Amino acid sequence: MEPLIEEAALDRTGAPLDAMTAPTGSVKKVDTRHKSPTQIALARLRKDKLAMICLTIFLFFLAIAIFAPLLTKLEGQDTTTLHQDLLDEYGFPTIGATSDHWFGIEPRLGRDLFARFVYGARPSLIVAVSVTLITAFVGVVMGLLSGFIGGWVDRVISWIIDFVLSLPYLLFAIAVPAVILTLFSDDASTADTSEVTKARFVSLILVLSFFGWAPLARLIRGEVLSLREREFIAAAKVLGVPTRKVLFKELLPNLVAPIIISTSLALPTYIVAEAGLTFLGVGLVEPTPSWGLTIANATTYYRADPLYLWLPVLAISILVLALSLLGDSIRDAFDPRTRR
Amino acid sequence: MLFYILRRVISAISVVIVTVVVSFMLFFVAPTDPAGVICGPRCTPERLNDITKSLNLDQPPVEQIVLYFKGIVVGRDYTSGGVTRHCDAPCLGYSYVLGVPVTDLLAKAVPVTLSIVIGGATIYLCFGVLIGTIAARVRGTTLDRVAVGSSLVIGSIPYFVVALIIALYATFLPKSQYVPFFSNPVSWAAGLLAAWLCLGLTNSASYTRYSRASMIEALGQDFTRTARSKGISERRVVYRHGLRAAMTPVITIFGVDVAYQLVNTIFTERIFQLPGLGLRILNAFNQYDLPVLMGGVIVGATVLVVMNLVVDILYTVLDPRVRLG
């Protein structure tokens, strides 16, 4: 009925646009006997070399984030100590990468770059993963309810979805932290850093979740609308299966593919969103170590200290690239119709 | 048709109204303290009281929203310290920090954002469609794989990272600045060139893929075979018959994309330091200037809704297969 907003919304989240997409690789042939659709998809995925490389890269960054305390202990540094003695009078570091400071130190403040780098992987992944989980849950529930119950419930939820999708998310992402801060402290102008840090973290997750569930809900609603007319649902209803069971035992298993595809494509976009908003100064704030923050600080020193800028730039680019390609591979594996 | 347009217009208006109400509640009914912020650290109770009155903060929230809507539709008066200032419609209030009407501030920023988006969009539409069409023609060859692969890689790297690297290292480009078009078109274009290239090249990645897929579909259709069987040149088949059919979906996405970019150029503006809508809103955030923030959100939402509406209606005109229900 209204293909445009839908396409744009799908496009914005990176979800598949049927004929318009160009998947990365051809679908791998696997033995499909005695296997569920999910098992077949996973088997296809395991045969996809590119997907496995991307998965390894993702797991590598995940390990960095999880073992950040261990890694910094191994180096013998932490994220907050100011090594002013290693800076010259203009604030530039006098050392490069040494055995004490593996990636050198920050100009001006003299904090250890390796420690800030490994801890910086954490907020990206925590924000992205929690937003992905929240949006997947809310989106699926809303889509199921809207598609299955129909009537005024459907009309209300559809209107909310349209409404959310027609709002400028980036502008709200800038506006909301200003307001949320006042909920955490009495006076926004004198809030201390721990309050600001907490408020920003919460508002980041809130804003991204608020705007993230709608595309998935719309997708699920569409799927449910076509599924609910099928014979197996009618059969379940005739047999007197309670609605809750029809929803979660009959419908949900049929929605596994679209849910997995859209969440795996959404995950990297949230990593980008976290880093981007933090870079703009509306996401996380000092002293939280975050790649977006390091990139923003490093722009003034890009000539004197290229490593300072390029480490987080490369890390986030590689991580996001790997996750996007992995998402494409997952889509190819779960939905072979979109092959080129 | 008329009924369809009417229904879409009504739903668009409802979205804008709800946006205004939601953002109003967010900014003024939430326990924020606008009067305290304007008053500053050396504040006397009388002055605080005066400011509270002048902003109508002492009235119930519903009345405040009504006043705000009245300001947008017919304008309103602000009385502060015995002086009454009239704010013309569409009035979005006064900036706390600069003391000028929000409408003026935003109106000054709009041409900058428009210039960035129009220039960038021209580049990515032309460049992306050209590469996509070529890739579709040589489908399956190394050239095609390189085009698709590099567009995937460019499209996956975070935009702000690409923009930042271009801004820092592409120093051979003219210095990024905004000069109004009517005062000097040449320096207008020169100052925006870096931003245009950045926006254009990164976005052309997805347009390469769209137009490639769309072109492949069009070249597989019967009318293409008919065109070939007439014996006309391959160039004519592709660029006359194929491209026209392939462009409809691409143009649709283009319209929606431009709408999103009008409100999402914040990264480009921040990195290239161009005083557009996004940078204005970002500065308002840093200065805790709530009316400007809120005005920006409302203007952004309105632009999005109106653009979506226009694209939807145009789409039904362009593509007769779309059935209105």
TrEMBL record, chain A:
Transmembrane segments: 50-71, 125-149, 156-181, 201-220, 251-273, 307-330
A Pfam family: BPD_transp_1
Presence of keyword Cytoplasm: no
CDD domains found in the cross-reference section: TM_PBP2 (cd06261)
Annotated membrane topology: Multi-pass membrane protein
Superkingdom in the source lineage: Bacteria
Compartments, record wording: Cell membrane
Annotated ABC transmembrane type-1 domain residues: 121-331
Alphabetical list of InterPro entries matching this protein: BP-dependent_transpt_permease (IPR050366), MetI-like (IPR000515), MetI-like_sf (IPR035906), OppC_N (IPR025966)
Family: Belongs to the binding-protein-dependent transport system permease family.
Name of the molecule in the record: ABC transporter permease
From TrEMBL, chain B:
Keyword Metal-binding appears in the UniProt entry: no
Origin superkingdom: Bacteria
Keyword field: Cell membrane, Membrane, Transmembrane, Transmembrane helix, Transport
Coiled-coil spans in chain: none
UniProt topology in membrane: Multi-pass membrane protein
Location(s) in or outside the cell: Cell membrane
Transmembrane segments: 9-30, 112-134, 146-173, 185-205, 245-263, 292-318
Annotated ranges, domain ABC transmembrane type-1: 110-315
Transcription among keywords: no
PROSITE patterns cross-referenced by the UniProt entry: ABC_TM1
Broad class of the protein's primary localization: membrane
PANTHER family: INNER MEMBRANE ABC TRANSPORTER, OLIGOPEPTIDE TRANSPORT SYSTEM PERMEASE PROTEIN APPB
Name of protein: ABC transporter permease
